[in-house]
What we know:
The structure is a single chain. About 40% of the residues lie in helices and about 20% in strands. The protein has five helices and five strands; from the N terminus they run βαβαβαβαβα. Strand 1 (about 5-10), helix 1 (about 10-25) and strand 2 form a beta-alpha-beta unit.
Amino acid sequence: MSKTILIVDDSESIRELLRLQLELHGYKVLKGVDGQDAVHHLNGQKIDLVITDLIMPRMDGVGLILEIRKNDKYAFTPVLVLTTESQAAKKEEAKVAGATGWIGKPIVTEKLLEVIKKIIR
Length: 121
């Protein structure tokens, strides 16, 4: 059974790049254009990992992480923050909200896949 990953990023090119790479490696992919859009996927379906951008319109990555953590079904779902943001304060804010880890942009596919394999088995 393939693992399901929810990708949340306001950049269509990032979403598509991740989708292509993850599907190529056997993952099922769901997509959200921002945190508010992604919340609709938190409907009881199995999600093994969330990869979210930090800076997005309507609901940012921290807001999404908080929504995920207050949902009993997804409270322990791993969340990777994928962003160009490098400020320590932003990293700490995401960590306090419940982020599992942090991956910087630009995306290095091999590194991302390595991290995913460690987080979800």
